[in-house]
Amino acid sequence: MNSKKKSVILRLEAALSFANTFEKKLATIYHIVASLMEHIFTQKDEKLPKDTLHACVVQIIGMMRISNSVMHPLLRIMEKEYTTHHHSVNVAFMASLLGNAMHYTHEQLVDLTYAALLHDIGKIRVENSILEKPGSLSHEEFESIKHHTKDSFSILEQNGITNSSILNAVLLHHEKLDGSGYPKGLLKNEIPPFAQMIGVCDIFDALTTKRTFRNSYTSYEALMIIKHEMSHQLDFHLVDILIRMLHE
Ligand SMILES: [Fe+2]
Ligand SMILES: [Fe+2]
């Protein structure tokens, strides 16, 4: 293990030993994972620190299991200014929370959270001028952004990841139940559960973070928009689990 990877894990362990409340521990893990993801997205280095990412995923899952009411502390900590690295971390924490509420096994949670953390990694191949463009995108620019799902798949494959649950989750996280998604335009049961869960968390995070073209919605508003305006595109059951957690 090289010194950079080692330093993230050591920093995580040292910081956790000083965090004496659940919320401080949650914030510590959140910020360290966010700084790792910021480094990955800034460097655009396609060689991923797999062991360090795995260690971060295990920490995230551990936090989701400590308490039954993680949703509110998590929402207080999650960054609301949109950046791709914060978005990746937000989606990973939310997907882990959702998987935990669905009583997934530890192995399933690892795969789900790992896929959620890296679902948009393909965006390192998209030009920053397109990713950060404040106005509307041209057809070509939008196509270039849409390509990130295939690139996420290929970057993970390139890093020796062969687990089909993880690979399909990143490839298919923009598919919609009514066939309007991409890259394949799959329908309902054709979309694997991990991809559907990451897709719901992805849209929830996109709505609850501030963008250049609009302010953020509250968590409740976001879930109501998803439930009432996207019910034909996303699994109702998953949205209901998030709504229930918001009421706990
Ligand atoms: Fe995406
Ligand atoms: Fe995303």
Number of domains: 1
Q: What count of helical segments does DSSP give?
A: 13
The dominant shape is globular
Spatial separation of the terminal alpha carbons: 41 Å
Q: Average pLDDT across residues?
A: 91
Strand content: under 5%
Q: Just name the CATH architecture.
A: Orthogonal Bundle
From the helix content, strand content and strand pairing, which structural class follows?
mainly alpha
Report on this model:
The protein is mainly α. It has a single domain (3-247), classed as Hypothetical protein af1432 (Orthogonal Bundle). The chain is built from 13 helices and no strands. It has helices at 3-18, 22-43, 50-66, 71-77, 84-101, 106-117, 128-131, 139-146, 148-158, 164-171, 193-208, 219-229, 236-247. Helix 5 (84-101) crosses helix 11 (193-208), helix 9 packs antiparallel against helix 10 (164-171) and helix 10 (164-171) crosses helix 11 (193-208). One fe (ii) ion binds next to helix 5.
Please render the helix and strand layout as text.
Elements: H1 3-18, H2 22-43, H3 50-66, H4 71-77, H5 84-101, H6 106-117, H7 128-131, H8 139-146, H9 148-158, H10 164-171, H11 193-208, H12 219-229, H13 236-247
Helix pairs in contact: 1-2, 1-3, 2-3, 2-5, 3-5, 3-6, 5-6, 5-11, 6-10, 9-10, 10-11, 11-12, 12-13
This protein binds fe (ii) ion (FE2) (2 copies).
